[in-house]
Write a structure and sequence with these properties.
disordered C terminus, mainly beta, eleven-stranded antiparallel sheet, Jelly Rolls, single chain
């Protein structure tokens, strides 16, 4: 098994609602997709046994930013961005529990209005025989498998 890191620009991501790409030197591959539209979604289908979502936590001193995560149509977690006075990059917002081996779809939904949510990349544990899909976007990065498991929610 191996960890595959997939940038937010990968063509396998399906965004609905109002999303925009913002460049930044601290994000993976130089940017992230952001939205402040309540009900906006991002879907990503992968073949593996778990997945995690990472993003940028912007300067958020007054508004709760809430996002909900589902796997294969079943709610799997919620993330509420803590109030902070600075920006934090490459922060884990969700990690699934152990999934059955096979194809799964991650569904991210924004539950807040007028507060920026920034999706930077996902990491999933791929099956040994699974090759990352090729697309017109950057090739997913493969990293060594983790030595320990993590909680299903941040």
């Amino acid at each position: 098994m191996s960890i595959v890191r997939v940038d937010d620009t990968d063509s396998a991501f399906v965004y609905t609602g109002s999303w925009q790409r913002a460049d930044g030197t601290n994000e993976f591959l130089g940017g992230a997709h952001g939205s402040r539209w309540q009900g906006g979604t991002a879907d990503y289908t992968f073949t593996g046994t778990s997945i995690a979502v990472f993003g940028t936590l912007g300067n958020n001193s007054t508004t709760d930013i809430t996002s909900t995560y589902s796997i294969d149509g079943t709610r799997a977690g919620t993330f509420v961005q803590p109030h902070n006075g600075s920006t934090s990059y490459r922060q884990q917002m969700f990690r699934s529990g152990q999934l059955s081996s096979g194809e799964h779809t991650l569904h991210v939904r924004l539950d807040s209005q007028d507060a920026w949510y920034w999706l930077d990349y996902v990491e999933y544990i791929a099956l040994a025989a699974t090759a990352p899909s090729s697309s017109g976007s950057p090739t997913p990065t493969v990293a060594p498998a983790p030595s320990s498991s993590q909680n299903s929610e941040p």
